[in-house]
Amino acid sequence: MNQLLANLDQYDPTADYVLAIITQTQGSTYRKAGAMMLINQSGQSWGLLSGGCLEGDIIAHAEQVFANQQDKHITYDMRGDPDLVWGLGLGCDGAVHILLKYLPQACDSDGKSFIEVLNDIDEGTPFILTLSLENNELLFLYEEDYQPAQLNQPDTLIVPLNPTYRILICGASPDVPPVVNMAAQLGWQVTVIDHRPEHIKPERFVQARTVLRVKRSEWPAFLVWKFNAVVVMSHQYERDQQYLDHLLNSDIPYIGLLGPQKRRDKLLKDCDTNIEAQQARVFGPVGLKLGGHSPQSIALGIVAEIQAVLSGNLDTLHLPEQNIEAAVNA
Q1: Taking a C-beta distance cutoff of 8 angstroms, is the pair 18, 100 a contact?
Q2: Which of 21, 109, 154, 183 is the most exposed place for a label (fewest CB within 10 A)?
Q3: Residues with Cβ < 8 Å from 37, sequence gap 6 or more?
Q4: CA distance linking residue 312 with residue 39, whole number of Å
Q5: Residue 150: phi, psi to the nearest 5?
Q6: Which residue stretches of the chain are H helix?
């Protein structure tokens, strides 16, 4: 979904499209059921259903769908078929079943195009895609808070279409651009704020969705609830404390703090709390310890930690100290 949302400015909401969606897989495959790829009539595509080896063939099949305005099934079964594996340059040996769904300009119950729905998702509204796997293969798009009868029907593929992560970076210091760029590569929406007009220049953060000056007096009223994660990077203790004090009153699941544990603990104490009360969502020193000391390697650790926390996989990345030492010395 992030790959589709990252290219909204390239879509034409008045045009017809083909949605290639994986409906079923067996064995080892690059993507699983629910993965999507969008194709226009010029053969331009967005999203991946493989490592790049199937996409050209899928686009060729989509030409027939546009010509007939009828859906089409295609299957790539690489199990025990060396000719197909070598012919398409495949690295997996499973089977992939794909539906090429013709999407006329208006395709849901409210008359919205699929592109318009993507724009709604980008603005923060989660949707659910349901696809009947029976012969009629009806596709519906619903806002998440609506529970249609189709969600309880057998032989229905249900795909959550969630907004991409929204990341707030408090501070526009020189080490912020690598964090912005890496987060943007994942399709995340990044907002950078700072109170200093000489620092908060859009040309320094070209991949950020929003670059905004927020004065000190405006910060207590700043709407932080819409963000999934925040990284405090102003490098000014007093300013970081002001940022943190407001953030702790929100339900943001990830708050990252630069600096050592001693600085983190002092910040929390000055905000009338401690790490024991906030350890589930306050991370400092920020970022996974991946090695390296450059701004780019630190940014990689920050983005990786945010991904792990928001996806619920952080515990699998923290090994006991003796295991880390053993791995390094192996």
Answers
A1: yes
A2: 154
A3: 19, 20, 21, 45, 46, 47, 48, 49, 55, 58
A4: 32
A5: -60, -25
A6: 2-5, 55-68, 82-88, 114-122, 176-185, 237-247, 261-270, 275-278, 295-310, 321-329
Tell me the CA end-to-end span of the chain in Å, nearest whole number. 39
Q: What is the pLDDT of residue 320?
A: 42
Structural contact between residues 89 and 53, judged by C-beta atoms closer than 8 angstroms = yes
Dihedral of CA atoms 63, 50, 290, 183 in degrees, nearest 10, equals 20
Across the beta sheet with 139-143, the strand order is 139-143, 127-132, 156-161
Contact 92, 80 (CB under 8 A): no
Rounded CA gap, 281 and 229, in Å? 9
What structural domains and CATH numbers belong to the chain? 2-161 (no CATH), 166-312 (3.40.50.720)
Torsion of CA 11, 15, 16, 19, to 10 degrees: 10
Structure tokens at 24: 């079923």
Q: Which helix (H) or strand (E) holds 46?
A: strand 45-46
Task: Give the Cα separation of 177 and 298 in Å (integer).
Answer: 11
Contact present, 49 and 22 (Cβ < 8 Å): yes
* C-beta neighbour count of 198 within 10 angstroms: 7
For residue 25, what is the enclosing H or E element? strand 17-26
Q: Could you list the mean pLDDT of each consecutive 10-residue stretch along the chain, which spans 330 residues? A: 87 92 90 94 93 89 96 85 53 83 71 86 90 80 73 81 95 95 94 95 95 96 95 95 96 95 96 93 94 92 96 66 35
